[in-house]
Amino acid sequence: MHILLTNDDGIYAPGLAALEQALRQLGDVTVVAPTTEQSGVGHSITFLTPLVVKEVYQRERRRGWSVDGSPADCVKLGITELAPRPVELVVSGMNHGLNAGINVLYSGTVAAAIEGAFFGVTSFAVSLEYDEHAPYDRAAAMAVELIRQVLQHKSSEPRLYNINIPIVALERPRGVKVVPMGTVRYGESFQRRVDPRGRAYYWATNDPPPPPSSEETDLTALQKGYLTITPLSFQMTQFDHLAQMKDWPLRVGDQPVVSDLSSSPTDGRNRQ
């Protein structure tokens, strides 16, 4: 199996190195990662400036390529230009910090996995809870064990998965929960400050999310110490509502708005 590995913490991140080593149990690994940290860039891509690519070595061994761009850029270049042969699996991570709940929408780690799924390749995002002394090797071994099992059980069509590992699970494993992504809104607070020149600026406080609801999600399972895995989709259309809107008498000027569902996928809820 040929695996493309990327991340959003940069090519020199310890989580990337640990995951690269562990993934070699599954096949050959090609590393294409950002030159510098790209946390929180979401699914941004570079098209107004050139992408500078450099081969990176660790002593005599070539680690892979660094890309002066986003995680999504790395996957695009990796699949179309840099990988020596067709990519059969994309893995993004291991991120230093969880990517659960609505953080999935901001995450460069998850965006890289989504980009792999765009290409029709099964893709995984892997994130470890933030810890100054994070045991990346143990977390990488657990992530690869889970990836191996998913690959054995999934259907032949490409899929997209998000894996999160809480620190407590490395010491006292409780198992794995297959759960939906939580959609509770995180606290959005800002501290207003004034710089030495009298100009106001605002600093996000990164407040924790509100208390969990009774619905089990990745957020609630992680708080209980479980590893979580969530199958994701980038098909964002609400097909139920699309069908309802077909009968709405919408108009633009004298022309009615025509809702054509004939080209919509019948299995749209299950598509990537």
How many structural domains? 1
Biggest sheet overview: 9 strands, mixed
**Count of individual beta strands:** 13
Name the shape in a single word: globular
Radius of gyration: 21 Å
Helix share, percent: 25-40%
Strand content: 15-25%
Structural class from helices and strands?
alpha/beta
Task: Record the SSE blueprint.
Layout: E1 2-6, H1 14-23, E2 28-34, E3 53-58, E4 61-67, H2 71-82, E5 89-96, H3 108-118, E6 123-128, H4 136-153, E7 160-165, H5 168-171, E8 176-178, E9 190-194, E10 200-204, H6 218-223, E11 227-231, H7 239-245, E12 251-252, E13 255-256
Parallel strand pairs: 1-2, 1-5, 2-4, 5-6, 6-7, 8-11
Antiparallel strand pairs: 3-4, 7-11, 9-10, 12-13
Helix pairs in contact: 1-4, 2-3
Overview of this structure, please?
- The protein has a single domain, classed as 3-Layer(aba) Sandwich (Stationary-phase Survival Protein Sure Homolog, Chain: A), CATH 3.40.1210.10.
- It is 25% helix and 25% strand.
- The chain has 7 helices and 13 strands.
- The strands form 3 sheets. It has a 9-stranded mixed sheet.
- The protein is globular.
- The C terminus is likely disordered.
Give a short overview.
The chain has 272 residues and is an alpha/beta fold. The chain has a single domain (2-182, 213-231), classed as Survival protein SurE-like phosphatase/nucleotidase (Stationary-phase Survival Protein Sure Homolog, Chain: A, 3-Layer(aba) Sandwich), CATH 3.40.1210.10. It is built from 7 helices and 13 strands.
Attribute tags:
272 residues, alpha/beta, Stationary-phase Survival Protein Sure Homolog, Chain: A, nine-stranded mixed sheet, two-stranded antiparallel sheet, 7 helices, disordered C terminus
